[in-house]
Each structure stands twice: as C-alpha cells, then as structure tokens.
Amino acid sequence: MNADRVFPPQFLWGAATSAYQIEGSPLADGAGASIWHEFSHTPGRTRAGDTGDVACDHYRRYRDDVALMRTLGLQGYRFSVAWGRVLPEGRGWVNPAGLSFYQRLVDALLEQGIEPMVTLYHWDLPAALDRLGGWLNPDSAAWFADYAQVLFRALGDRVKLWVTLNEPWVVVDGGYLHGVLAPGQRNPFAAPVAAHHLLRAHATAVQAYRAESNQQIGLVVNLEPKYPATETVEDLAATMRADAYWNRFYLDPVFLGSYPPELPEIFGAAWPSFSAADLALIQQPIDFLGINYYSRQVVSHDPTDWPLAAARVRQPHQTHTGLDWEVYPQGLTDILEWVSGRYGPLPLYVTENGAAFYDPPQSAGEIADPLRLAYLRTHLRAALAAIDKGVDLRGYFAWSLLDNFEWAHGYSQRFGLVHVDYATQQRTPKASARFYSEVIRSHGAALATDFSTERAG
C-alpha cells in the first residue's frame, strides 16, 4: 500500500452495536418484550440457553461505554433502538422511560463529539406485534412508520444519520424461511411476504422522516459477493440465483422498482404478485446506503440445497473466522464497486465489518487478537482501494464495539474490539482496538505499516 494514501478528510470512523445484543435489562422501566426476548427464552433456540437479559449491561453502563468510545478516538457510533422500550405494545402508548434512555445516550455521545447513527430496527420486533402477525401483517408498515415518527420527533434535532432497517435479508432468511432466528418460522410462503412488508416499512419510515427533517436517512443491507466455482452453465446459473437472493432481493426494488427475475424461480408457487403501487412506494429516494460485509461465497450448483440449488464451496486453504466465514478482503472492494456500478454513485457507508475469533483468557493489560487485527487492516485497505476506484464511501463502522450476545450463537463468538468479561462486566480493549485507534488518528496512514509486529503497549 502507498504510504501516502489516506482516507478523505471528512471520512467518519466509528463502531457499531445493536440493542438486544448489548443493552441487557430488556424489560426494565416498562419496556415490552421483543421477539428476541421470547425466542432466546425458548429452550433449544440459542446455544447453552443464552439470552440477552444481561448482555453487556449497556442500559446501565452507557456513560462508561461512551467514555470508552472517546478514549478509542471514535468519531461515530451506530446503535439501534429497541422498539419495545419506546412503545411497549409496538404501537399506541409511548413509554417515557424508554425514550429517555435513548435521549440520554444521544446527548452523552454528542457531549463527547461522537456522531450518532441511529438504526430504527435491528431484528427485535415487539412481541405484541408478532402476535398480530408481525411482518406478515400488511399493517406492519404503518406500525413502523408511527414508531419511527416518535423517534424522529424526539431525537431529530440531534441525530443527523438514520437507518430504517438493518439487514432485512437476515430477518427473512433466518426468521421466516429457515426458522433459526426470531420469530422462528420456517415457511417459504411467508418469506417473500415478510420481505415485501419490510421494504414497505422502510419506505413509509422514509416518508415519515421527510415530513419531519431534512437530514439523512438510509437503509442497511448485508451483501456477500458471489463467485462461481467453475465456468459451467450450471454453476454460473446457481451463482446468479444466489446473487439475486442475497444481494439484489432488497436493493433492486428500492433502486430499480422491481424484484430480481430469479426470485419467482427460487420460490416457485410461494412467490406472490406485488402491486405497482407498492413497488412505487418502495422506491422512496434515500440519502445513503449502508453495507455490512463479512465474507464472500464461492458457489456451485447443488440440487439438494434448498431453496437455491446453489451451495457454498468452502475454500480450504484460506483463513476462516470462528463462524467459518472465509476472510476475503477483496470481496469488500468488489461489492462496493458493484453497488456503485449497478445502482449509481450514491453515498455509501460500511456499516458493519469485523470478525469473530477466539480470544485468549483475559489477563493484565491488553488482549492480543492478531487475526482480528489483520482482518481489520486488510479490509480497511480494501475500503481505501474502493475509494481509489471512484466509490463514494463516506465512513466505516467496525463490528463490533463490544463482545456481545451473538444471537443464536449466544456468547460463544466474540466480535468486539473491546473484550467483555460477562461475569464482571469489565471492559478491556484488545490490540485490534489500539490499532483501529491509530488508524483513525492517522486518517488511515497507519494501514501502511504491519502493526501486528509492534510490541503491545
């Protein structure tokens, strides 16, 4: 890497979290239960029966965590709001105590010069709404818009960056198609309906925001570039199906006004028809797109793989994370270029990027995490390469600030820049946190050095 290359002066450096993964106290101060609270309390749903009841206790320790962000030099912090804290039943009565928590958090961030990016929905639908059908209910878009308006009016004078949905693909694939995430349904007929209503909800929230503010609102999607295992007709077709299902499903409707043509083939009789009015609604203009990138997928045709007939081909000679995701930084450059080329030169943020690796037991001082540090270094270089190729990349948010509740994996996987001792709630920055701080301080110049060879300070 050229030692003279640095990121643009206004580039926003941050870290990201989500409410259910770190806050704990999910029912405190009048909050309503979420689908993730109920899912994690259902035997057999999460590893070792882990729940988010305590998590990182951020609900009570947020001021210390904001001070830690400042110590690390973070300029931005992406977090999500627990819908049920603000509206315990998902609609109707607003809970002042729950709303006050997020007002205090935003104020604490701004006092430390940290820009908040607020995500309205990171998978924790109020359980009361799930009992009304959740994302399968056509009214869900209106519920979401009403909830969003409460937040816009309470925080809109201080928050400039808003996200409607985080990773609708995961909500649908894990929660409605395969049943491994909340709300735990496994129904191919439900999946496309839930996907469509999520996009309608996104659009109605954007409309509500335009009525309240002239700042910026966007959508966050998880993208994973697909590469064919061979150049056979079968593998190329399988790769296109995987790309349509993973990457284009939630972007083509927003930017192009239609769903990818491969989806009716994938879902068969389960694929419904959608009205022209709905597709026009979903095309609400947004101010930026957030991209969550972790890995790539090499694809081969496999008729036994449901529903895509497209299987992942593991690359045995590559480094893999604790979740068996291949470390492939070039994929970040590729996906950023692809988005810009297909959908136009809109502002982009990398809103999540990180890796789960085994961390040694906590001891005095810094925790060494060389694999995570190397992951960050190579992926930040890949982000800079995309900027060099003309991508309008405005910021980068590492996933995650803290080790946390990793959904169905419970506490078995650690993504954090900061180690959390779940028994004591002690926070200990890892070597990757120190490295990231130096990258921020130097505007990226530190990426030109092999930081892993330096002695930990």
TrEMBL record:
The keyword Coiled coil does not apply. GO terms for biological process: cellulose catabolic process. Its EC number is 3.2.1.21. The keyword Protein transport does not apply. It is an enzyme of class 3 (hydrolase). Coiled coil: none annotated. Keywords: Carbohydrate metabolism, Cellulose degradation, Glycosidase, Hydrolase, Polysaccharide degradation. It holds the Pfam family Glyco_hydro_1. The active site is at E167 (proton donor), E352 (nucleophile). It comes from the Bacteria. GO terms for molecular function: beta-glucosidase activity. SUPFAM superfamilies: (Trans)glycosidases. It catalyses: Hydrolysis of terminal, non-reducing beta-D-glucosyl residues with release of beta-D-glucose. Signal peptide: none annotated. InterPro entries: GH (IPR017853), GH_1_N_CS (IPR033132), Glyco_hydro_1 (IPR001360), Glyco_hydro_1_AS (IPR018120), Glyco_hydro_1_beta-glucosidase (IPR017736). One of its GO terms (cellular component) is cytosol. Gene3D superfamilies: Glycosidases. Substrate binds at Q21, H122, N166, Y294, W399, E406, W407. Belongs to the glycosyl hydrolase 1 family. This is Beta-glucosidase.
